[in-house]
């Protein structure tokens, strides 16, 4: 048997077989899809606090500050220098009560942080910033 007879009986390979490459890519894609949700959460175990809002069953204290510097606790207006004492009177009943700070959105940020610091100084342990619910039109 000579060389010319061998080449005539076997067909020529004209391209690369890409089926194994596609199989490998699909396996890697499935592995990536299974493991990607695990990569989003860090390995730090934490116990998250429960949220309390104005709709809570227990009473809240509302601290309101206007653009011109007037301050109110719930519905009673208080002078700036009497704020901490008045808030302490409300917190004596329940020091863990939720204090909701409501500050005008056009007010400088420093006024919000100032009121937060003063609430903490008065003994407030749970402080929340009041926001207006965004209305979604359907």
Q: Ends: how far apart?
A: 83 Å
Averaged pLDDT, please? 81
Which architecture name of the largest domain does CATH use? 2-Layer Sandwich
CATH class of the largest domain: Alpha Beta
The H/E string reads HHEEEHEHE
Assembly type: single chain
Strand content: 15-25%
What coarse outline follows from CA principal-axis ratios? rod-shaped
Describe the sheet with the most strands.
5 strands, mixed
How do the strands line up in the largest sheet? 3-2-1-4-5
Total domain modules: 2
Helix fraction by DSSP (H/I, runs of at least 4) = 25-40%
CATH fold descriptor of the largest domain: Nucleotidyltransferase, domain 5
Number of helical segments? 4
Describe it for me?
By secondary structure, the protein is of the alpha/beta class. The chain has 2 domains: 3-39, no CATH class; 61-129, Nucleotidyltransferase, domain 5 (2-Layer Sandwich). The chain contains 4 helices and 5 strands. It has a 5-stranded mixed β-sheet with strand order 3-2-1-4-5, covered by helices on one side. The N and C termini lie far apart (83 Å).
